[in-house]
Amino acid sequence: RGQAFHSLKSEIGFGFAMAMTQVLAEFMISGFGVILPSIAAELRSGSSISPMWPTSILSLVLSALVLPFARLSDIYGGYPFFMVGLLFLIAFTGAAGFTTTEAQLDVFRAMQGIAIAAFEPASFSLIGNAYKPGRRRNIFFGIYGACAPLGFYLGILVGGVALHYAHWGWYFWTASLLAAITAIAAYLSVPYAAWSERHEDLKMDWSGSITLAAGLIMVAYALAAASHTAGGWANPVILAPFLVGLALFVLAIVLEAKVVTCPLLPGEFFRPKGIKPMVVACLFFFGCFGVFLFYSTFYMQQVMNASPLQTVLYFTPMAVGGLIISVVSGSIIHIVPAMWLLLFSGLAWILAPLFIAVAPNTNYFPLVFLSMIFGTLGSDLTYLIFTLFCTDIQPVRYQGLAGALCSVVVNVSIAFSLCLGDMVQS
């Protein structure tokens, strides 16, 4: 067991709590796509924003706030933010089950994004302090990465079962219960040595946090609403936030590079060899991931006329394959060069959406089935390699920031790819 743990039982509890953060993050994204049509019909929304907006808003808020929370985790330790994030998720997922208006839904989804932004980088900080680089840590991250497809599948499963047998509110209430179990496990198992590490020489960058967050949300809003607003880009309601958002992005870059003394993304963070091209590559990989996962769900329900429970069955190979691939790759990544695995995952991401695009309208076998297999090869290998690469090349003081960068890349890619996908569809 890891040196920070006094017993195998405590290490298992710690592993469960950390892995559940991945499950919960994916759960809150995937299952919502299944229940969204029912929620929209019940609330009778007349919003001009994209139908994908309630889905995208969680990823946007998460992307906007995860870097500030990562800095706070590095300064004060990850444990307080890990627990507060879980408590937020318990409260606002429970409340979301009682939603009666679209405004309430948007607020609850945004608050869920804040919760995940708090505990995701905190979990990386806790893991980085509990395990030294090596085979055991690789296996741990393999299991951690496997929980992403597991959480995605579990979200679809719970959403489908809730719609079929009860009410969509049970999707949110189940998430609240899972978050409560995770909080209890973390409280009982996180070793003091894993969260007592603090770096109070770091300072909080409030100017960078505010400008980056505001710019990201404004640009994404404009992209999401442009195709669903009269006049499109000529409408000031769309053009104004887009231009202001771009200006804030430029201001944030200037502040981070020239003004602030302790930027959110310090220059030394990007000095290790290969990190810049890795980030760019993963932006495209996970953009494909977002479009593939959400639009394959719509394809199954609207083109193949699959019921919610049939959709669950169709995604089963992705969940099972994800568990196997992540555990196996976590054991062999110290033997097989990561570049070869990354190239293989890139090939998988070419084939996964391609098979959906050319599949006959009503047949699951063989092309949609193969698409699920290649989808899990692409997503799990990419995420495992990306997280290991970012955490292994950074010192302990930047472990929370490394986890935040991984989360930002994934969620920014998903949010913007869905906005662009909706524009193409419209």
UniProtKB/TrEMBL annotation:
It comes from the Eukaryota. One of its GO terms (cellular component) is membrane. It is found in: Membrane. The chain crosses the membrane at residues 12-40, 52-72, 79-98, 110-127, 139-164, 170-194, 206-226, 238-257, 278-300, 312-333, 340-358, 364-389, 401-424. Residues 14-426 form the Major facilitator superfamily (MFS) profile domain. It is a multi-pass membrane protein. The keyword Plastid does not apply. SUPFAM superfamilies: MFS general substrate transporter (SSF103473). Pfam families: MFS_1. Keywords: Membrane, Transmembrane, Transmembrane helix. InterPro entries: MFS, MFS_dom, MFS_trans_sf. Gene3D superfamilies: MFS general substrate transporter like domains, Multidrug resistance protein D. GO terms for molecular function: transmembrane transporter activity. This is MFS general substrate transporter.
